[in-house]
Structures are given as structure tokens and as C-alpha cells.
Design a protein that fits this description.
The chain has a domain of 286 residues: Rossmann fold (3-Layer(aba) Sandwich), CATH 3.40.50.1820. The protein is built from 14 helices and twelve strands. The strands form two sheets. A ten-stranded mixed sheet has the order 1-2-6-3-7-8-9-12-11-10, with helices on both faces. Strands 4-5 form a two-stranded antiparallel sheet. Helix 2 packs across helix 8, helix 4 runs parallel beside helix 11 and helix 6 runs antiparallel to helix 7. It is globular and about 60 Å long.
Amino acid sequence: MTNRFPVAPLLAALLALACWLRPAAATAVHEADRIDRLPGQPEVNFAMYSGYVTVDERAGRSLFYWLQEVPAESQPAPLVLWLNGGPGCSSIAYGASEELGAFRIRPGGASLFLNKQRWNRVANILFLDSPAGVGFSYTNTTSDLYNSGDNRTAHESYTFLVKWFARFPHYKYREFYLAGESYAGHYVPQLSQLVYRNNKGIEKPFINFKGFMVGNAVTDDYHDQVGTFESWWNHGLISDATYRLLEAVCVHDNIEHTSPPCDAAYETAMAEQGDIDPYSIYTPTCNQTSSSTTPSPAKKRRRVKPWMRGYDPCTERHSTVYYNRPEVQRALHANVTGINYTWTTCSDIINTNWRDSPFSMLPIYQELIAAGLRIWVYSGDTDSVVPLTATRYSIDALGLSTTTNWYPWYDNKEVGGWSQVYKGLTLVTVRGAGHEVPLHRPRQAFILFQHFLRGKPMPSAPKNGTMA
């Protein structure tokens, strides 16, 4: 007799839920990291965890993480590690608190409100402060703050992942992706390469790595700088003479270690640009300043927040207040060493003393494209820090063949941006977004993220809804 009830789908769903719940109940290690409730937090239907993973016992380096899960009924869902850049800037301060995270901070840092376009609606999002000395991550060896660099950051982020999966074994074998922005254009490919290489020869690696996505990403010093200077000139931000000067003295420099003549040319360019937000050139800046939020000269190209309808330009000020509250730190299991220090969004010490920084990530792209990993690069088109022109020059240098020509993509019958699909890489622009795409265009960024997870091209025709 044929069963009239859909038993098989129901049984499959129950088994999936059991597989999710059983390891969680059997493993108490990660329960110590569960967040009961943050001060000023609204009610939510998803779980969160935060805490430390030690990546170097001898030096006392420990990295701080914050996991924001999807609701239980949507599990199992992919796991995505998000990294902000700087170098020296906190993923808690930026990704979690003003971009794709579950909450935004109200003015004054007194309470939180839910981010409607939070990415943990469709994936479990793991935010990581890296390297040690950034955000709540710490080191017991002071010299670490003066000798951080790409290589150690990548290897200790990998160590973090291995230990984190041991603490959260129910995430093993889950689809895993890396994502980030800005100088994470170095962090993400380098960590991706380590994960990919360490998975080789393993029949079923527990880090089930599928690919990565980066936005407004530092990629290749030469092409990035050529494209940046051209973008500044095309947008009328600098004079003809300064454009020629920058091309003459900067394009062959390492972005993190520029020469004195290049530094002088940059200062001239900054003076000509005036008091704008370089991260979002068409929007007013936050008028409030303080010693904790005013960037040093070395950081001017990677900080400052814009004002635009729908978001708050002064979020750095709000997060600085909120994350320095002792009750917030206790709820997050942060600052467990009890050191009396002020939490900051970025570390100027780490930024100005950054050591190794390779000129190009393109060789890593070539290796991972050949491996068949999913690779998406996106760009907000009103950013002057790592502008779209720079990204296009860097991608063009890969010499990839095109599978889908440049086309507009749509959201609710409006052009959300443009896209081009290459063999092994997808480029997406987000119209009207600055450096932090999920901050400036949260809805469009969420659509982008959904399509990335599904490996599905951006919607090429004007349709209602969020997915093509």
C-alpha cells in the first residue's frame, strides 16, 4: 500500500535535526562560550557564542571570535568565516557591528537593534579578530604588536580554525566559506590557500572548504595603485600634476611600505581631495571626532565612516562606547585577562609596524581557480580606497576568459550593480556602495551573499523579490 503521508521528507528533516542536536548536547566544551544575552540586546531566535582560542601557548597569543548562528530550524547551514582588514582592524567592530552582523549599535552605545539584512539569516557567521592585538584578541608578548605580518596571521588563523572545529565538532564537514574586505584581500586568499593545501590527500577533510568572497579587496599592489590613481583622477579628486606624480613615484611601491617620495605624493593627493570620506566619496562625513576615532596618518586610507540615508556614519564612536562597557565584555567572555586597556576599532601600533606584505595575491588566485574553488570578488563603486577600477585592473591581470559578458543585475526592478563571469571567478559591483558594501547597501549586499552561497549568477533581468 502506498503511504499517503510524506513520511520520507519528514523523517529526513528529523534525522537532520537530530544530527545537529546530538553532537551539541554531547559536547559541553563550547557551551561555556554561549552568550546568554548582551546588554541592550533585543530578543532573537538564534544562538550566539564567543570566546578565545589560543593559537600560541608560549607567546600567549589568543584570538577572539563571535559566532552568530542561523535559527535552529534552518540548520544545518553553511559556515562562513568573516575577516576585516586594516591591517589591524577588528571584525567585531566592522563586520559584526556595522555591516553584516546580527546587530547594530544605537547612538551612545546604550543598546542594540536587529539588522534586518543580517547574513546569519542564511549562514552561520563566524567573526574573527586577527591577528593577536586586534580588538579583543591579545598577546602576552608585547613585541608581537611590532612584528605582525601576513604570514603569521594566515598560519595562526588556520590554527584557530583547527582548534575551533575541535570545540564545535558539529560544524565539521559543513560547507565552509571565507569572506572579508579591504586588507582581508590578503588574509582571505592566504588562509584559503592554507586550508586548500592542508586538505590535500585527505579523503574527507573536516574543513569542507568550498570557496571565498572578497570585497573592495587589496589584491595586487601594482594594478591596485594604477587603478586607484586613475579612479581619483577620473572622479576629479586630484589634479593632473598629482596624478602624474603618483604614477611616477608610487606604482612600483609596496602598498604597506611606501617610499618617502610616494608618502609625500599621497599627502598632496589627500590635501587636494579635501575633507571627504574616501570610503564613500559622495556622502558627508561624521562630524564628531575624538582621539579614539580619529585616524592616524597611516590609517587615513582605511578608516572614517560616511553618512547616508539608512545608516549611521558614526558607528565607530558607538561601538567604542559599547565594547568598552565592562558588562558587555563580561557577556561576550572578552578581556578575560582583566587588563586595563581601552578597546579600539583598529590598532595603529599593528598597522604602522606591519612586516611582511606580499606585492600580489594573483598567484594564489591562479592556484585556487585551478583547484575549482568558488571565487567571487565584489566592489562598491563609490569607494576611493580600493576603487572598482583597481579591482578590474587586478582581475584583468589574471588573463581569464569570459563566460558571461558585463551585464546589469537587478533588485526590485532597479539596477543593483553590474557583473561579469570569468572562467573560475565572478566579479560583481554594487551601485552606490562605498568601501563597506554591507553598510552602504545592506539589502543588495545580502542578495549578493545569497547568490554567492548558491553559486548562482546575479539576476540579469528586473524581477520582484530578492532572488532571480
